[in-house]
Write a structure and sequence with these properties.
Blueprint: E1 10-12, E2 16-21, E3 29-34, E4 37-39, E5 46-47, E6 51-56, E7 61-66, E8 70-71, H1 122-149, H2 152-177, H3 180-199, H4 209-215, H5 222-237, H6 246-264
Antiparallel strand pairs: 1-4, 2-3, 5-8, 6-7
Length: 268
């Protein structure tokens, strides 16, 4: 409640207020002010206008509201020293006792809806688990990196698996564009990479002779050994043979995928 300097001829007491909220969050509602005013003399005929200034968020400026003055009729105060006048034979009824004091409130007004503390809210408790989950994720990632660093065979196996995946896509691209030389160079490299990883040999040391020296007698079927020989020989003959068509190159891709998949099942 703002100060009202124009009410200087009135005795005023501190105003009180009440809140009535119209939403659950306590952001909108009605606030009512109440103030007790006592005129200082009987010549006062009107309560001066009330001025209330506030900021209007819609218009983005300050506004002042003013109401019309309120006419009042002030009577004489009863005096204990004055002799009562007897106008009639019947004694006048005693006026009810009035008090210009406002009673003190037993409790404060509610300023807004009471919400449960954060420790009892589900979203707050869920948020506390985020740092723990992040720490566990980093710990698992660190342990995995340490395991790879201490296991060179596993590290090479994963690297070769990525190279095989990329190399197969390159084979399809070379076949679509009919680039025979690049196709067979990539095919030969994929066979070297996969056999080298399974046999624990450098990829550059893998030739067709390794098939009979290291793979024969292993769990690899004879048909797969024959398929490997044919793929190596096709790579060698591609240097001197005519350039193959896109259909011929594309027909080799499923055979390469099949034999590489069988090689991955070999125990290193």
């Amino acid at each position: 409640m703002p100060e009202q300097p124009q009410w200087r001829e009135f005795k005023s007491y501190p105003p009180t207020s009440t809140n009535e909220f119209t939403d659950a969050l306590g952001l909108s509602g009605v606030k009512t002010f109440e103030q007790v005013l006592i005129p200082q003399n009987h010549e006062i005929k009107m309560l001066p206008p009330l001025e209330f200034s506030y900021f209007d968020p819609t218009r983005k400026n300050y506004r002042t509201l003013t109401n019309a003055g309120i006419p009042i009729l002030v009577g004489y105060a009863a005096s204990t020293s004055a002799q009562p006048s007897i106008l009639t034979s019947a004694a006048p009824a005693a006026p009810p006792a009035t008090s210009d004091l406002v009673h003190i409130k037993a409790r404060l007004d509610t300023s807004g809806p009471v919400r449960p503390p954060l420790a009892q809210q589900t979203w707050f408790l869920t948020l506390q688990s985020v740092p723990v989950l992040a720490w566990l994720s980093l710990l698992v990632m660190r342990k995995r990196n340490e395991a790879l660093a201490n296991n060179p065979k596993l590290r090479r196996q994963r690297q070769v698996a990525r190279r095989i995946q990329q190399g197969l896509q390159e084979l399809r691209d070379h076949a679509a564009t009919q680039r025979s030389e690049d196709f067979f160079a990539t095919l030969f490299r994929l066979l070297q990479e996969q056999l080298g990883e399974r046999l624990d040999l450098p990829a550059s040391a893998i030739t067709e002779a390794v098939i009979d020296e290291r793979l024969r007698g292993n769990t690899l079927p004879e048909q797969s050994l024959t398929e490997l020989h044919e793929l190596f020989q096709t790579c060698n003959q591609a240097r001197y043979a005519r350039q193959k068509t896109s259909q011929e190159l594309a027909s080799l891709v499923p055979r390469v995928e099949s034999i590489l998949g069988e090689l991955q099942t070999l125990k290193p």
